[in-house]
Design goal:
The protein has 13 helices and no strands. The longest helix has 26 residues.
Length: 255
């Protein structure tokens, strides 16, 4: 329970009771990370149902759906997206890129990438909403925040860390722990099963897109930074949700 509270206290803006942050609870907080996705999914479902009743235009629904995870998380993952964009756009050596990740200032390229990200997310959601999503596609779409956090937890646990200290290293530890990998793997199997059972085509395309992104993320993190950091994990989570939305849009075109 302490691990769950620590996770929500770290990765969301949802008020939580004060608990003791011991080493074990902190390390296992990553296993509860998908619960933040569950909250976002439930809020998104409620918004869609309310919008349907009030006949809210699809464009407004898309904007509100983009706003929900930002409000719930406080934008912590978008911060990682911006910092990673600034670091990669510097085309500097590995050490300089890691310094840029720690710099609290926002660069021009970070703002440009954030704007592009939000525009692409809006376009994907507009396509899905205007396409009159079936209940099966809606189920797969609502599981994207959960799937992205499961994969984020697994990659954070399995990939080498670029730093010996920092938020990510403090949360997951320096070494891979079998117990956490098993818990997250079981979560991934369960989520993938629901996706495929809900809609084989949409679920399959979504899982394939996430798999390809993980391979790219691993290559990029190791080649450019020597491992993953908290900011890179934020970048990955944002890109996983964007890739998921566009995978479902592509699945609609294939049909």
């Amino acid at each position: 329970m302490r691990a769950i509270i620590i996770m929500f206290s770290t990765y969301t803006r949802i008020p939580m009771p004060h608990v003791r942050w011991d080493e074990k609870s902190t390390r296992y907080a990553i296993c509860a990370f998908p619960l933040a996705g569950v909250v976002i999914s439930l809020l998104s479902l409620g918004l869609l149902r309310l919008s349907e009743m009030l006949k809210v235009p699809e464009a407004a629904q898309a904007c509100l759906l983009i706003a929900i995870p930002v409000i719930v998380t406080g934008g912590i993952h978008l911060d990682g997206l911006i910092d990673t964009a600034d670091a990669r756009s510097s085309y500097s050596d590995r050490g300089k890129k890691l310094e840029i990740l720690k710099d609290p200032h926002v660069g021009a390229f970070g703002i440009i990438r954030l704007t592009l990200y939000l525009l692409l997310a809006f376009a994907a959601l507009e396509i899905l909403l205007c396409g009159s999503m079936t209940r099966k596609v809606l189920t797969t779409a609502l599981l994207i925040p959960v799937l992205s956090r499961i994969c984020s937890g697994l990659t954070a646990e399995l990939l080498p860390k670029a730093r010996r200290s920092g938020m990510l290293s403090d949360m997951v530890g320096r070494k891979t722990e079998r117990g956490k990998v098993i818990i997250l793997s079981l979560q991934l199997i369960a989520c993938a099963s629901v996706l495929l059972a809900a809609d084989l085509i949409s679920g399959g395309i979504l899982l394939a897109a996430e798999g390809i992104l993980i391979l790219y993320y691993r290559h990029m993190a190791l080649a450019e930074f020597g491992g993953v950091t908290g900011d890179l994990a934020g970048w990955y989570l944002c890109m996983a949700e964007l890739a998921g939305a566009w995978a479902l849009a592509a699945a609609g075109w294939i049909r």
